[in-house]
Sequence to fold (229 residues):
Amino acid sequence: MFGIVIHLKKVTSTMDIAKKVSYWLSPPFLVISDVQTSGYGQYNRKWLSPEGGLWLTEVLELKNYTALSLLMSILVVRVLEKYVSEEIVKIKWPNDVYLNGKKVAGILTKVSGNLSFVGIGINVENSVSGSLSNTATSLSYYTRVDRSQFLNKLLKEEDSLVSLYEQIGFRAFVKEYNKKLIFLNKQVVVKSKSVICGEAIGVDESGNLLINKGFSRVERISSGTVVSF
Ligand code: BTN
Fold:
C-alpha cells in the first residue's frame, strides 16, 4: 500500500514530519523514525520513544474515516497475536492495545482536510523503564522479536484490512473488535462529558462504546476514557 516509506533516525515526532511532508508528497506514505525526541499521544501526553520501538505515522487518503483508530488497534492486535498467545492481547477502548494487562501500543489519529495521519507507537524491542513499567510493557518481554520483521508483518496485514474497511466500513470489524475488548461485559466507569457507570456491552458500527446502565437504558459514548474496569 505504501509506495513511499521515509525512514529517519531521529525526529521530534513522526506526526510533525508527516504533516510537513504531506504538503509536497501524495498519500499514501509512511514516516518512521528509530527515535522520537518529542513523541506525543492522546491528550498531548508525552510518549517515550527510545530505540527499539516502532514509531510511525501513516498518511492516508480514505473515503471515510469512521472508527479508523479502532481499526488500527485491530491491526496491531492481529500482528501481536502472531508472536504471543491471543488470550493476552486485548484492546482498551478506543484504541490502546494491551499485553497481559499492560499497555504495549497506542494509536493517535488526526484528520486534516482529506488526509488522515495515523500515528502508531508500539513497544517492540525497547524496554519500558521506571514507573512506566507499572502500566506499560514491551513485546520483547514475552518473545524474541525483530522490529523490522514486525513492521513487515504489520504492513502486509494492513493491505487487506484497509481494503475491506474501504469497501464495507468498520461494520466488518465490530465482532472482531468486541472479542478483544478488555472489559467486555464488565462494569466500567467512563469519563466523558459526564461520568457514566454501567456494563460495557461492546462498540457499534461507528466505534461508539455502548454502556448498559440498567433498566434497558443503553448509552452510546463517542469519546472518553475508561477510568475503571
Ligand atoms: C496514545 O496512546 O496516547 C497514542 C500514542 C501514539 C504514539 C505514536 S508514536 C508515532 C507517532 N508519533 C507521535 O508523536 N505519536 C505517535
